């Protein structure tokens, strides 16, 4: 039996950052290293991009259908970003946390701040580009968006970066492998937090040692024994 029993509930981890910072690549590799992590797929009203897969990258809904689901309280949180809806379906999240899974939510900052109000013990990680110039280069290299969309994303990124102090951690994705290692370390460190301890167990040998330590302290703190150690007597 281990000396510690930790709470079985997993951590809800929110990862945000401007489009083009490499959040998806980081998350994918961290999940490969940690089979206990479950990715919560968000829903969006934006068009599917080349290479994206329904139910893997997002659940793609029409704007009308998204708004209908808002009315039925389907989402844990939702927001409108660059003209499209993004939301976190409630389904499965609580079940996965109760099973001890760490759940990743990859959402933009407005949604993250709503989660922060709803889930007090959630963990928040912000991914930054090495520079705004590099961010523009990455967005242009993707070749999936018009110049107007890239400009809007750049403006949004500028605003988002000013909100990083509301997060627990910030990771700069200058070198992808370094960024992956840092995010992986955050997941592991959060599992070691003292407030995750439910009980502390001592086995028989440890309990005996504890009793011996108490006896030893009593002997050494007894005035008579202190005098005897010096070769004197108080009698």
Question: Layout of SSEs?
Answer:
Layout: E1 4-6, E2 12-16, H1 23-33, E3 37-40, E4 43-44, E5 59-60, H2 63-71, E6 75-81, E7 84-89, H3 93-98, E8 102-106, H4 109-118, E9 123-128, H5 132-142, H6 147-161, E10 169-172, H7 176-191, E11 197-200, H8 204-221, H9 223-229
Parallel strand pairs: 2-8, 2-9, 3-8, 4-5, 9-10
Antiparallel strand pairs: 1-11, 4-7, 6-7
Would you give an account of this structure?
- The chain has helices at residues 23-33, 63-71, 93-98, 109-118, 132-142, 147-161, 176-191, 204-221, 223-229, and strands at residues 4-6, 12-16, 37-40, 43-44, 59-60, 75-81, 84-89, 102-106, 123-128, 169-172, 197-200.
- With 235 residues, it is an alpha/beta fold.
- The chain has two domains: 9-196, 3-Layer(aba) Sandwich (Rossmann fold), CATH 3.40.50; 201-229.
- A five-stranded parallel sheet has the order 3-8-2-9-10, sandwiched between helices.
- Strand 6 and strand 7 (84-89) form a beta hairpin.
- Helix 1 (23-33) crosses helix 7 and helix 5 (132-142) runs antiparallel to helix 6 (147-161).
- The chain is elongated.
- The mean pLDDT is 84.
């Amino acid at each position: 039996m281990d000396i510690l029993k930790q709470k079985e509930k997993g951590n809800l981890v929110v990862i945000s950052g401007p489009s083009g910072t490499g959040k998806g690549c980081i998350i994918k590799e961290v999940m490969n290293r940690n089979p206990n992590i479950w990715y919560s797929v968000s829903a969006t009203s934006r068009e599917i991009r080349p290479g994206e897969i329904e139910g893997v990258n997002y659940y793609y809904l029409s704007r009308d259908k998204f708004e209908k689901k808002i009315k039925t309280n389907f989402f844990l949180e939702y927001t409108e970003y660059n003209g499209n809806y993004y939301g976190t379906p409630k389904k499965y999240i609580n079940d996965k946390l109760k099973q001890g899974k760490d759940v990743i939510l990859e959402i933009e900052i407005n949604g993250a701040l709503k989660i922060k109000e709803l889930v007090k013990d959630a963990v928040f990680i912000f991914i930054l580009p090495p520079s705004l110039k590099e961010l523009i280069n990455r967005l242009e290299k993707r070749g999936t968006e018009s110049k107007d969309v890239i400009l809007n994303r750049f403006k949004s990124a500028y605003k988002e970066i000013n909100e990083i102090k509301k997060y627990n951690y910030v990771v700069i994705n200058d070198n992808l492998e370094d960024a992956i290692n840092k995010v992986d370390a955050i997941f592991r460190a959060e599992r070691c937090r003292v407030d995750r301890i439910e009980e502390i167990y001592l086995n028989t040998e440890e309990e005996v040692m504890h009793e011996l330590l108490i006896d030893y302290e009593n002997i050494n703190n007894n005035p008579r024994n202190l005098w005897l150690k010096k070769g004197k007597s108080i009698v």
